[in-house]
Amino acid sequence: MTSPFEVADVFRRHAQDYWRAHAGRLGHDESRVISAIQSCRTAALGGHVESCDDCGALRIAYNSCRNRHCPKCQGQARQAWLAARQSEVLPVPYFHVVFTLPPEAAEIAFQNKAQFMLC
C-alpha cells in the first residue's frame, strides 16, 4: 500500500519553517538534498513528452533529481538491494553488532577491507 503523501510534499509544506528554525545549523549538503527532493519530477527540472506509437496519446514526463537521498529516485534501487540482502540472510535468529576498532587496527582494516569483512 502506498501513502498518499510523499517526502517532497512534507518538504514543500514545511521546509521554509524548518530552515528558519534551524538557521545557521543546516549545511549546504542538507539544503541541496531538500531542494533536490522538492524539485524531483516537477517542471522545475524540465521534462519531455512521451507519445504512444499505437494510439498517439501524449504524456509529459518530468525529469528526476537522481539524488541518492530521494525516495522517488532510489526506491527501486533500495528494494533491489534489500531483496539481494534478504537472500544472504540465514534462516536463523541473529542480531547486528557494530563496534569501533582502535585507531591502529582501523587504519590496517581500512587498507585491507576484503580481509576484514566478517560476512
Your description of this structure?
It is extended, with a radius of gyration of 21 Å. The mean pLDDT is 89. It has helices spanning 7-21, 28-39, 71-88, 103-111, 113-116; strands at 47-51, 58-62. It has five helices and two strands. It has a two-stranded antiparallel ribbon. With 119 residues, it is mostly helical. 49% of the residues lie in helices and 8% in strands. α1 packs antiparallel against α2. A hairpin with a 6-residue loop joins β1 and β2 (58-62).
Write the layout of secondary structure elements.
Layout: H1 7-21, H2 28-39, E1 47-51, E2 58-62, H3 71-88, H4 103-111, H5 113-116
Helix pairs in contact: 1-2
Brief write-up:
By secondary structure, the protein is mostly helical.
Spatial ordering of strands, largest sheet = 1-2
Alpha-carbon distance between the two ends:
33 Å
Question: What series of H and E elements makes up the topology?
Answer: HHEEHHH
Low-confidence stretches: none
Overall, the morphology is extended
Average pLDDT over all residues: 89
What is the share of helical residues? 40-55%
Q: How much beta, percentage-wise? A: 5-15%
Number of DSSP strand runs: 2
Radius of gyration: 21 Å
Number of discrete helical segments? 5
Largest sheet features:
2 strands, antiparallel
Content-based structural category: mainly alpha
